[in-house]
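Posting this for the archive.
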Amino acid sequence: MNLDTSPLQTPFDLKQLSLRNRLAVAPMTRVTATPDGLPTATMQRYYQRFAQGGFGLVITEGSFIDEAWSQTYENQPGMASDDQAQAWRPLTAQLQASGTRSIAQLQHAGALSQFNRYRPGQTIAPSAVPPRGLQMPFYRGEGAYPIPRAITQEEMADVVAHFGSAAARAVGLAGFDGVEIHGANGYLLDQFLTAHTNLRTDRWGGALPQRLEAAVATIQAVRAAVGADVPVGIRVSQGKVNDFGHKWAEGEQGAETIFGTLADAGVDYIHLTEFEAWQPAFGAEGPSLVQLARRFAPGLTIIANGGLHDADRALQLLAHGADLIALGRGALSNPDWPRKLEQGLPMKAFDRSILGPIADIKASELAAA
């Protein structure tokens, strides 16, 4: 490799977290927890490979936040109870002992729940709008999504509170260094952001600033729960798992509103995920979403994710204004991606069988590491 990859290898401070490099593992749903939401020894081995491989930061797969409506997939881990949170502690301690920091992603499925042991076959969402697309079979889903029921004001207050209590457990009991709110990919907070899935006329719906109220209230609850010193971030995307090509209808003006509002709400970082993060955000030309985030939220840390397993693309996104690069497919194929980069070793191509027929963590995957 003839590229100067040293910018990816420089340390970075995320609030009070000192990261050894600019490389993070992106959150990836692996449905390998116990049926009651406890992380497993297999998950611990899976995550430890990334620490041993040199990643400075690991952002875990989304954990559901309550024993009500938030669970998204069968065998998804939870942060809804003290038992679930405490079961994360050996994993986070092992990562930290290896010099890798860890952030817990917190998730509410909303209308895109494919399995919920607490409310079987039922979903809630901003409005009773049938979700586009079909459930994902590699997460044990089949057929159309259920038509959700519109969430009540009281239930929305519970959602916000549960994000806060889950964040407190993640830091206080599970031992994570920070928390990330899942506001991307078509899940609940993204459903509030999106005009065609949010038809409400109360404080949670209407024009774009009102549709952002759910994210703002959640950020404020999480910040209050973890305090001023703990890093709090939010993941944001245009595309959704059930609506891959979706773009923000308001274009760059909407991006200004979204990024400015999230910054004002008190997050420390925005984690942007796009299929190809270097591409123009809107149309065939123009700035990438990372460039827009840097323009409209200049004081925040920006994490870029999306097709950045090629080092030249990762470097391009640093030049666009990203501070950290989060790898998904690249990390799955090469849990030692940072070590290989440093030593100039070839990277393995992504093997799609890792995520099929079910996207759980496989023994062959761990053996190959």
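The longest strand covers residues 101-107. The first helix runs from residue 41 to 52.
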